[in-house]
Recover the amino acids of this structure.
């Protein structure tokens, strides 16, 4: 099953209007490459970025499961769409940790986003302690099962990002064997949940991806792209990762 690669950047709580030049430069480079590219920006930049890079996929970093209401500081799927977003991340480990989001919350967020016609990148990943204890595959498989929405519509619009927490922003990366083992286990869970459509869902790797390790990671079976944090903030760092994905086919 050939799945077109997807490289998505997550700017987290970084980026001001002055940084929109980076979005424009990334979108121009992406146009010429045979790979899907997206940037998930702070909510304050979404509409501005959509205007400065028309046609390029801009996303949010979280979405509330409810359509509207008394949820101070939160953002709904309709609000993301209204700002021009095409996708959203759900279940990032920083939100699971700092905002105490549970698998059920992540599932509800994914459902709300898909229902509103946003593409979704759903994150899962284990802690250092879980990896050290040898329980990474079982733990992340269980986390995925409990976070998956009951249906996903068009499978190429739903992605899973495997992001070991201990690899995020640390410069540490699992061995290629460990990445391959996890992605293959997650593929089996997706097929168990969605049948053949599970083979069309993209599984991204995330955690300290950079230009120097991207080609090796993209060569691992069942790695269909990357979710990139720090190295997505500038075109100089991000575009070589996108180019590596395009070369990997
Ligand atoms: C992330 O937080 O999604 C991420 C992968 O971060 P980094 O690339 O900086 O490790």
């Amino acid at each position: 099953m050939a799945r077109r690669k997807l490289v998505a950047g997550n700017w987290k709580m970084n980026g001001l209007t002055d940084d929109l030049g980076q979005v424009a430069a990334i979108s121009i480079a992406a146009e010429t490459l045979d790979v899907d590219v997206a940037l998930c920006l702070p909510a304050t930049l979404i509409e501005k970025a959509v205007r400065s890079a028309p046609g390029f996929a801009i996303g949010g970093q979280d979405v509330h499961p409810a359509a509207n209401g008394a949820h101070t500081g939160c953002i709904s799927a309709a609000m993301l769409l209204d700002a021009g977003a095409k996708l959203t991340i759900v279940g990032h480990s920083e939100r699971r940790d700092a905002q105490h989001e549970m698998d059920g919350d992540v599932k509800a967020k994914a459902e709300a986003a898909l229902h509103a016609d946003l593409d979704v990148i759903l994150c899962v990943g284990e802690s250092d302690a879980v990896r050290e204890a040898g329980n990474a595959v079982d733990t992340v498989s269980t986390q995925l099962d409990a976070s998956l929405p009951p249906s996903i519509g068009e499978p190429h619009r739903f992605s899973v990002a495997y992001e070991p927490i201990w690899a995020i922003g640390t410069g540490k990366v699992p061995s290629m064997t460990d990445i391959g083992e996890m992605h293959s286990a997650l593929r089996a869970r997706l097929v168990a949940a969605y049948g053949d459509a599970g083979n069309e869902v993209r599984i991204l790797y995330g955690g300290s991806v950079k230009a120097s390790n991207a080609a090796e990671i993209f060569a691992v079976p069942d790695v269909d792209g990357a979710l990139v944090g720090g190295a997505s903030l500038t075109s100089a760092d991000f575009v070589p990762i996108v180019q590596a994905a395009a070369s990997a086919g």
Observations:
- The pocket of phosphoenolpyruvate is lined by residues 10, 163, 168-169, 206-209, 227-231 (CB under 6 Å).
- The radius of gyration is 17 Å.
- The beta strands are 6-10, 36-40, 57-60, 87-90, 119-124, 158-162, 202-206, 225-228.
- The CA atoms of residues 231 and 237 lie 5 Å apart.
